[in-house]
Amino acid sequence: MSTTKAGTVGGYRDRSVWQSRVAGLRRLDWTLFLMVVVLSVIGALLVRSATFQLMTDQGKDPEGFLKRHVLNLVIGFGLGGLVTVLDYRLLRAYVPILYGLACVGLVAVITPLGSTINGSHSWIVIGGGFQVQPSEFAKVGLVVLLAMILGEPRDGEIGPGRRDVLLALALAGVPAALIMLQPDLGTTLVFTAVVLGMLAISGARKRWLVGLLSGGAAVGFSVWFFGLLKPYQLARFTAFMDPSADPRGAGYNAQQARIAIGSGGAFGKGLFNGEQTGGHFVPEQQTDFIFTVAGEELGFVGAAVIVALLGVVLWRGLRIATQAADLFGTLVATGVVCWLAFQTFENVGMTLGIMPITGLPLPFVSYGGSATFANMIAFGLLQAVHVRRRPFD
Amino acid sequence: MNPKTHFRLLVLYVLVGALLMVLVGRMWSLQVMEGTHYKEIAAQNRTRDIVVPAIRGMILDDQGRPLVRNRSALVVSVDRTSLTRQKDRGAAVLRRLASVLGTRAEEIGKRIQLCGPGIKRPCWPGSPYQPIPIDDHVDPKRALQIMERQEDFPGVTAQVQAVRDYPRPEGAGAAQTLGYLQPITQEELDKRKGLKVTGYSGVDLIGRAGLEAMYDADLRGVPGFRKVLVDSQGRVTGTAEERAPTVGGNLVTSIDAGVQGAAEKALKDTIAKARKEGHKADAGAAVVMDVHTGRMVAMASYPTYDPGIWTGGISQEEYDGLLGKKKGEPLTSRVTQGQFAPGSTFKISSVSAAVKDGYSLTGIYPCPGSYDVGSRAFTNFEGQGHGDMNLHEALVVSCDTIFYKFAYEEWLRDGATKPKKNPSDPMVGMARHYGFGSRTGIDLPSETPGRIPDRGWKRSYWNATKKADCKGAKEGYPSVARTDPARAAYLKAIATENCTEGFVWRAGDAANFSVGQGDVLVTPLQLVRAYAALANGGKLLTPRLGTAVTRPDGALLRRIGAPPAAKLPVSQEVLRYIRGGLADVTKKGTAAGAFNGFDFKRVDVGGKTGTAEVFGKDDTSWFASFGPVDKPRYAVVAMISQGGTGASSGAPAVRAIWEAMYGAKDVKPLLKDGRLPTDLPKPPGEGAAP
Fold first, then answer.
1. Residue B564 domain-assigned (yes or no)
2. A330 to chain B, closest Cα gap in Å
3. Beta bridge partners of residue B611, listed in sequence order
């Protein structure tokens, strides 16, 4: 009897969970899902195009990068699905752990455990050809942490109080400082964008925002003024001002990126037909400069489609923020949007010569395990918020 | 959701939308508006032009014998880009290469570094994509080591290339006439239109002197090029475009290797003999011209050198030797660049001038041992008097005093030291008509014009020197006076005269001029042309070396012409009279000794000796000739600087050349029936292309 009861109870519960799962599936943002899938497919093709010739020349498997990228995507989608299924509100319980792990990872990078790749000391090489970039996961940690602090239910107050804001800034400041030590200017800027965006949406007082902006400007000025930037960072900034000044030095990337994109013209040279890409004139083409492959091979039309797809992702993200069930959900979605929006603008902007060159990948498109996983988790967070949105009725 | 959050979310929508619009706008401007521009840049980025040098044409003599040809040489080259890709940037390969070539790795390293600011030579001034030649004197065994062990020498090639070769047919070197090649400079490359190249190869040379320079455009051919595709590392990934080079044309010259060789030998032998007799004989020239066409048959200059040393990079030591005074400046052609006082050979012009000025051609004139020109006595050679004689005799015995008399009387008629407004200066005018004092216009670069010291020249010379002279006139020469007061007084007197009236065309100037002394300077080429004009009936021709440019298969590309001849203002009667006088010089005159035993039946040669005094040096020895006397074909001139009298050095040299051309007792004639071939020669079978 008891077994029957238990079985009945168990069967009922199972069905309920199953039903809720199906209902949840139906409540997914399928437009967002579709955009991310399309971007991932385009990304995989561009990664293949960027690496095929290089790998052939080196006598390696020409599609080695593609295979690994597809594997990364599969794992990434898995991670995203997991996050979607999780009740994001439960995340709050894990936030300190997440945050702590991110900080430990970032500290580990600074210790001899870390490795330098392309002038950025932001990697931990695990071995067997695997390496982890903790700063990518720190972005996730930051978003959830800030959402928790700033999205705390409050009575009577419209925005977070001074204590909350200061706590948020302090907690964001630790990983930001660690990342600055690597140094990774790009990720620090992403942090800044996320903090500013989430503070604004949380309803923090205007003076906080104005104060932070002017403080940031002052810090930026003094960093430049007192020469705190690393020589290569300064060189990149100088190159940004005038890429033709030293085409083989720091300006080389910017120059070659613009040549590759510009030579694509309106309709491009055709996928896998990029001559600049084939000759690997642009360095880091499968990661940070993947947009140059799109620009050259797919032309203005193809590149604009990619920007448009990313635009739809951001639009859906903002929509999810607006429809979220609570402030925590809104802030999570906002944080993800600010992160992805800034990273998209910075990444595409630097290839077009309107932003200085920093080492940030293009979300959902660039090759790179840590970045893909982090992006997919962010995507999962958006879906999680969306699944548990306010009902329209 | 509170309204503040809601509003701020809307702001974020707008902000994100705006940022994405900025990106798309920038893409539009870069890809659509400026797409064409970037496509061009991308193409330049992706391709490199490599020059494929054309094989340079040969320089042939009148019978098609190559004076300059090409030979195949094994050239070892290093590909920079391939080396820099290697782990140690090619250090190991360079070490191995150095040991095979017997040099040091650092030496090779220096030669392959790219020239730029702060980089010392030897460095590579060409394109980094062009293999850099390291050695073109590699012996085949060593080259084979490199070719067979390519795995030990990645980036090193040993290739057969064409380099200049000088076969010296019949002993004809003609180094100064042929000229030489040197790598093209960046400025020259910039000036060259047509083929736009990013660099030039080590074998892309340009004619730097002589015929190589003059006919560079004909000889050089059209270089081909290969447009190769490269990746960002400069690795060649394919060929986009290719154009084969066009072989350069062959230059057919009027130089006859046989006569040239004979002239060089005659000159060398004569100088050796003169040195044995105690003369310094530091330089000389021998030149043969066709009197009817102005074609140069031989041009020999002493000292000479082997132009082969230019091939494959000349060392600094060798180069200094060519330019330095120590070795007698062998690069200088004494034929076209040597300027010397002509002495009595100049009298053909003076006789023409005197007769034109009214002196009777057949008149009898006194030839005393000395003639007073103003207050100064001008003497004959060795002060000898010959009594009364006609002009014929005056040429035969080379009487000077008759010419002093003509010059002095003409000078007096022109107003002496206070000249008329338009002095006639008949001797100066006639010298100019004979082509002295200006370039002949021969097809060689850097010809010198000689000097006809007329009134204008005197004035400009005075302007240039009067400061020093007037200082001497004022202060005297105290330092000289301490040891030699007489000389100091003499110097002061001269300085005073030069200071106050140095610009005046004085009687002594006129007298010296009439016998080719004083400040008169001519080149052997000018003199041979003047004698050719005398021989051909008064046509002053423009000398030519090049006759035609032909294709390697012998087909004519173009004929090389010359400007129309100028006419001497001298009647045929006078020219015939002078020729008659010169005809006797070789038989009973000043050159009779030198021509003793000469077979005048083979070829009747007339000529004139010249012994020009040079201040502080031994006399310049001249002999200018033409022949056959009744139907002239050639003019031959020899000059030996510091060689003694014209009879002792110049005349024997000229005699040897005539005997080589027309034959003598034991000498087979070079000329067939006294003629040289006039048809274009057939292309030579060898040496045309490696």
1. no
2. 9
3. B621
Side chain identity at B231, as an amino acid letter? D
Q: Could you report the per-residue pLDDT of A225-272, keeping only the tens digit for each?
A: 665 666 666 666 655 555 544 444 556 777 888 888 988 888 988 888
Classify residue B115: in a domain, yes or no.
yes
In total, the C-beta contacts within 8 angstroms joining chain A to chain B are: 141
Residue B433 lies in a domain: no
DSSP string, A79-125: HHHHHHHS-HHHHHHHHHHHHHHHHHHHHHHHSTTEEEETTEEEEEE
Q: Chain A: give the shortest CA distance to residue B442, in Å.
A: 51
Token duo for residue B458: 């005197």
B78 to chain A, closest Cα gap in Å: 23
Interface contact A158-B37, CB threshold 8 A:
no
Residue B43: CB atoms within 10 Å: 14
Q: Which long-range contacts (CB under 8 A, 24 or more apart) does B231-234 make?
A: B231/A57, B231/A278, B231/A279, B231/A280, B231/A281, B232/A256, B232/A279, B232/A280, B232/A281, B232/A282, B233/A280, B233/B81, B233/B85, B234/B48, B234/B81, B234/B128, B234/B129
How far apart are the CA of A130 and the nearest CA of chain B, in angstroms? 26
Burial B589-617 (b: 16+ CB within 10 A, else e): bbbbebbeebbeebbbbbbbbbbbeeeee
Binary contact (A279, B39; C-beta < 8 A)? no
Q: Is B463 among the domain residues?
A: yes
Q: Mutation target for B interface from A158, A263, A289: give the one with most B CBs within 10 A.
A: A263
User: Which range is least confidently modeled, A224-228, A385-389, B440-444, B528-532?
Assistant: A224-228
Final residue before a domain boundary, out of B127, B158, B189: B158
- What is the amino acid identity at position A300? F
Interface ipTM > 0.85: yes
Cα(A208)–Cα(A149) distance, rounded to whole angstroms?
A: 16
The domain total for chain B is 2
List pLDDT tens digits, range B120-179.
556 665 556 667 777 777 777 777 788 777 778 888 877 777 788 899 998 998 999 999
Domain chopping of chain A, boundaries: 28-387
Q: Would you say B546 and B214 are in contact if contact means Cβ atoms under 8 Å apart?
A: yes
Integer Cα distance of B63 and B678 in angstroms: 9
Cα(B211)–Cα(A111) distance, integer angstroms: 74
DSSP assignments along A320-354, one per residue: HHHH-SSHHHHHHHHHHHHHHHHHHHHHHHHHHTS
Structural domain span for residue B496: 455-504
Choose the mutation target among A255, A280, A289, A300 for the interface with B, i.e. most B CBs under 10 Å: A300
Last residue of a domain, one of B158, B182, B213: B158
Segment 17-46 of chain B within 8 Å of chain A by CB: 17, 19-20, 22-24, 26-28, 30-32, 34-39, 41-42, 45-46
* Chain A CB within 8 Å of residue B16 CB: yes
Q: Is B486 on the interface with A (CB under 8 A)?
A: no
Q: Does residue B87 sit at the A interface (CB-CB below 8 Å)?
A: no
